[in-house]
Amino acid sequence: MHDRTDQLADSRYLLLTTFGDDGSRQDSQLWVVADGPALGVWAPAHSGEAERIRRRPRVLIGPCDAHGRPTGRQLPARARLCDAEATARYRTSLINKYGLTALIALARSRFRVGLAGTVGIRITLNELEQRLVGPEWRPPATYCVN
């Protein structure tokens, strides 16, 4: 399970799919960092992503390119909003991973909305759902439909 998390954390962008009250899907392309066995992303505290996660923590995650186009399979996960301490750790991790680009984006954000205006989002893969839909299960060679 950790190897999938590591692969997603190593990717440049993460496609986060959240769900609205009516079940509609909303895709967001975000920077991603590792947080132990989980993943961390950073977003404005009152963004659509944060509001939908407050109501429905079930999400889909997968790698994507800079334009938000999926580059791999999306996996079921659970997301939760972080406290100020974890959000600060994510900011530091973003600067370590993305360098000057992240430093400038974080400085602009801090100037516009302050530190309380952004929130970290911790994402963990659903192990049970992953086992049910994951590629680990393959029918044995002796399997027959009849």
Question: Any key phrases for this structure?
Answer:
Pnp Oxidase, Chain A; 32% strand; alpha+beta; 146 residues; 5 helices
Descriptive report:
- The protein is α+β, with helices and mostly antiparallel strands.
- It has one domain (2-133): Pnp Oxidase, Chain A, CATH 2.30.110.10.
- Helices cover 36% and strands 32% of the residues.
- The protein has five helices and seven strands; from the N terminus they run H-E-E-E-E-H-E-E-H-H-E-H.
- The chain has helices at residues 2-10, 48-55, 84-98, 100-113, 127-133, and strands at residues 13-19, 25-31, 33-35, 38-44, 58-64, 75-81, 118-125.
- A seven-stranded antiparallel beta sheet has the order 2-1-5-6-7-4-3.
- Strand 3 and strand 4 (38-44) form a beta hairpin.
- The model has no long low-confidence stretch (mean pLDDT 87).
What low-confidence regions span 5 or more consecutive residues with pLDDT below 50? none
Global structural class = alpha+beta
- Assign the CATH architecture: Roll
Strand content: 25-35%
Q: Specify Rg, calculated over alpha carbons.
A: 17 Å
Distance between the termini: 33 Å
The overall strand count is 7
Largest sheet: 7 strands, antiparallel
Annotation field: number of helices: 5
What is the strand arrangement across the widest sheet?
2-1-5-6-7-4-3
CATH topology heading: Pnp Oxidase, Chain A
- The general outline is globular
CATH structural class: Mainly Beta
Domains, number: 1
CATH superfamily: Electron Transport, Fmn-binding Protein, Chain A
The amount of helix comes to: 25-40%
Average residue-wise pLDDT: 87
- Topology pattern, helix = H, strand = E: HEEEEHEEHHEH
